[in-house]
Amino acid sequence: MDGDVTPLPGSVVARVLARSLLVQAAWNYTSLQGVGAAFAMLPALDYLHRDPEAFGEALQRHAEPFNAHPYLSSLALGSFCRMEAEGESDDRIRRFRTAVGGPLGALGDRLVWAAWLPLCTVVAVCLYLAGLGPLWTVLAFLVVYNTGHLALRVWGFREGWEAGIGLAVRLRSAHLANLSRSVERWLVGALGFLVGLAILVPTLRGELPVPWASAAVIVTALGAILGPRVWRPTAAATVIAVASILTFGFFV
Predict the structure, then answer these.
(1) Where are the domains of the chain?
(2) What tens digit of pLDDT does each residue of 192-215 get?
(3) What SS3 class is residue 32?
(4) Angstrom distance (rounded) from CA 56 to CA 48
(5) For a FRET experiment, which of 7, 60, 210, 250 has its CA 20 to 30 Å from that of 228?
(6) Dist. CA 224–CA 221, nearest whole Å
(7) What are phi and psi of 206, to 5 degrees?
(8) What predicted TM-score, i.e. pTM, was given to this entire model?
């Protein structure tokens, strides 16, 4: 990678990152995120291509079909900007755009939708059960979730710019899959804590009879110890419990 490329000014990077928040705004079945990606890159393309014809060609190729996870799209945007700065050929940029979208989509789905978002949601529910008010719970969720989300975007653009066309190698060294597994482990722990709170809090308030609380603890412990082997009896116990509660509430 050519180390003599002048970095983009901070103001240009900030504008690209701000626009990347709208990368999904113009999503359609023809260009997917292409229009959004071109919109996000406008400040960088305007800075890199002073010639109107070169600017128009660059804008056109980046408006073509492209799709990735929206939060990891900044990785691609950083790489695209670096390739434009280095004067990579039109054909090479187009082939790179086609190749990079799928892996970024898969990595983002696992890291964000399957791990980070559920973890933040479970933590917010735990805070609510612990006594935090609804407004503060929502604010806590938004602050924690968006801190991670925005940090991922900023990190992504920096990594993409430094990697350029070598983004695949950069992604392997970034260990995003390992990060996803770490967040998933935290999610499992948070779910266990949530189950404990869901049993303990109403029991202490007198809203859940002790026999029901004891049964819930036993079922939870069996599930944790025996795992998938007891999913059928656990599911049956849950259905019976819910049916009993609904029946009791209907007749009482």
Answers:
(1) 10-175, 187-251
(2) 888 888 888 888 777 777 776 777
(3) strand
(4) 12
(5) 210
(6) 5
(7) 80, 10
(8) 0.81
